[in-house]
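INTERNAL AUDIT FORM
Audit reference: QA-55
Scope: verify that the stored structure record matches its stored sequence.
Auditor: D.O.
Record contents follow.
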Amino acid sequence: MQYEPAPSAGELARRLNDLQHTAQRLMSQELFLAEQRASERRFTSIERDLEELQRRLEEEFRTLTSRIEARERDRGANWRQSVYAGVIPAGLLLVSLLVQIWLSLDGTS
């Protein structure tokens, strides 16, 4: 068994300094990892929120598109109904007036 001499005070100070730097690096690595995990959680949360927002926007666009198409169909139907409601009675009135005029002229001759 060999006997090792006790380290000098300077050697002890140097070793303590090395241990302190190593501990600080370990602590900063742990802090870095913790911050990295927190950032990862935030990004994951933001990604989920963006996906939800995109899904809602697509759903709202579909709803809006169907509403616009329904209004266009209704507008066309309303226009046709207005034409038929106005043209047919007016046409029948005109025909009946022409028939009455023809009958009255035919009856006087």
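Auditor finding: record pair retrieved intact. The radius of gyration is 46 Å.
Action required: none
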